[in-house]
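Quick one: structure tokens for this chain, please?
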Amino acid sequence: MKAADVFSTLELELKPDPSRTVVRPFGFGYPEAFADGRTPRSKAVAERLMALAPEMRARMRELLMKPMCERHRNVQHTFLRRYDQMREEIGDPANDETDRLLIGAYFSQEYAFESAALFNPSMVALPEEAKTEGSVRFLMSLRGIGEGHISSVTFRTGEWDGERGLTLDPPSSTGIPPQVEPHDDGWLRLICEESQDVSETVIFPMLPSQRQGIEDVRLVNFTDDDGTKSILGTYTAFDGQNARQEMLRGVDLRTVEMRPLTGRMAAYKGMALFPRRIDGDFVMLGRQDNENIWLCRSNDMDVWEEGQIIMTPKYPWEFVQLGNCGSPIEIDEGWLVFTHGVGMVRGYCVGACLLDRDDPAKVLKRTPSPLLFPSAEQRGGYVPNVTYSCGGLLHGRRVLLPYAIGDEFSAFAVGSVDDILAVMEPA
């Protein structure tokens, strides 16, 4: 069997949908050179509104709320909360609920979080029972890109029968903005209590470190030594200049927590956590030098100081760069890791390697040829010549690998573990 024949692609694809929007905070001020001695711009806007006749403000509320209520659930509460958030900056100029709604709307924006791209998917199994016997339920994260090339995280659910039977639950047309609640333990809690479906939960940049985006979540079902199970995800926080790794913890489908990772190894892209400790340590893969695959160990999940190179470019399709495509998958033979390689014309392909189960610093086998690569029909896109994944799903001895095409949309491929191993050669 050839490497290119290992995976069978499915017809199902996920395309960006500009109609899916979320209401998020909007702020504005004067350029620094023009701010001295002036009333803050936010306060000036509120004063202009309050100078209008009450009848005009009532009419503005009617024109605002009718279309917004058609597109968003409980948007009235969203605007009122936004008014409360602005009180410290603008005072409390409102006379009644109409005024609070309107002011809240001036400091909000409707954001199409996946209008340009929906890509770099990752999957984990969910514990809930599938609707079809023999199938597995899953949670999928995706990176959406909207206005300003800002990346957010959106979710889907579905089930897979282990073969070509893949069903995605229809996404809600509603996006729910999270409410931020800091915690003393260092986790930032994002609550989307109004979400009725996980596809309504949208995580957009909240912190200065995330100003330009939350990128490429790599989900993993993590089981700690005491048996505690968690859905975790490492992701890249990008502020426009610097990237660092942060971690997401899925408490439930309406509450998500996030925190930064620290240490010498954490200020880079693309780290992926193993699904359990090894010899008492937490273990991650990364590409700290943007060329090789690294193995990092820590006795503290939040602090990553030590790492070593375990795999270097060997074949032409990976001469420029190697990295992981999600968290390692434990199989009888060891740790199955999907990898990405960068070759000519910055083309991204997907391959795989096998790591020793007891000592994952040992690379046992790897694919000399890519398993998935841009086809002639798929070389265009938002970023041409890119095939990329952030993690697949194991069901028995079968793998479902969601992957992105051209940094624009997502597709799915199904393959056998045995076939993947068969096309590998000794490392």
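The first strand starts at residue 8 and ends at 14.
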